[in-house]
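Format is sequence with structure; example below:
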Amino acid sequence: MAKVDLSGLQSMVSKKQTGSSIPKPEKRSSSPKAKKGRRGKKGGGSSPSRKFEGVDFVDNPRGSAYEGPSEDEIAKMIQQELAEQLAEANINLNAEEEPKEEERDPNDTDRLSVATDDEAIEQEIKKQSKTENEAKKNKKQLAKEKAALKDARRQEKQRREEEKKALAEKKKAAVEAKRRQEYDERRKKMEVEEQLRDAEEEARRAEEEEEEARQMLQESRRAARDDRERKRKEEMEKKKIERERQREERRKMEEAARQREREMAERLADASERRRMREEAEWEAEEREREERERREQEEEEEQRKMEEEEERIRELERQAEQEALERLSRERRAAESRRREAREEAERQKEQEEIKMKEELKRLAEEEEKDRQRQILAEKKRQEELEKLRQIQAMEEEARARVQKKLESRRLWALRRRERNNEQRSHMNGMRSTQGMTRPWVFSYYLLWPRETYERRLPSKEKKKGFRPRPKPPALPPPAR
């Protein structure tokens, strides 16, 4: 049997107005007050005015308008009708509609028998007992269905809350994981970019250092060469001056020695011999001068050759040092370029991995969106089914309300007819009341019942007095049989 949500029926019943405005019945006292009357004279006189306590006579036989059931009773009747209809609908909800037999119209007042009050009361009692039994069964079944439906709704609500909570936690975890992944990716990307920048900066620095080193080597070589050239020139100049000085000193000494020899020879020889000796001395002087010049030129050439060899050796050493420095700088530059290339390759690899992860994330998001869409479609379908079921229940409630209004209208007609009959009988009894009086036998006594404990108690007494509580009034006697 399908479960139907009836939680909102009471609120719908209380909000909607009933078809016919039926006033609420006023509460009447269950114990009618007996009017005081005079006691009739002995042997005749007027009829006593005292009324019997068990019979309630109404002075106005017309009375007020018909007072039907209250709103709560109408709501209960509507719930009973709706429970019966729901039970039938739950059984035959999926079955095809069968042709129904023609139902008897409850508003057909011609079929209502109001011949006597006893027959009508007996029929009403039987009908009410049968209706009460069915209503009890329907109420129990409806209460069970309501409890089961309430439990199912509670479980469904709890399940939805758990699913919602789990989905929220899952989304939160996914968001946190995505945030961490994005943070890690950004950190790795920043590290790769930093490494790439460092590699590029290192390569640029290596190139600059290589260029600076080359320039510094060139400058240092030029400065060293200039310094050596200057020193060499100074040294050559010093040596030349020294040779000139020595040669001049030697020439002077030799000239002094020759002069002494000439003077001695001139003293000893004649004029021709002196001329020959002078010519020989001049030739020897020229020859010595030539030899000295040649020797000096050879010395200068030998000195120049040695200096050139030393310069070549220094230049070769400088070239070797420069080559080693350039090779070292080239190695550093190649290492920096290799690191920069590796950093670029790492950046490209990271970029490819990010693109792959992005594609996977987009695919996963598309799958989740498709699942959410399917879930929303199922939820919308279920909601439409619940709305359709609610519309069916509302239609059933309207039908039950209409049937209850018909029943109330038929009861109202029946009650009006019965009231007319009762008024007729009441007026007949009031006409007979003047001749047939109804009195209650009673006995008068001057004695009163007084508790003995009050006057048999010793005085004075230390005990605390207790409150006096009179004996309750005895119940009224049943009315005499007519």
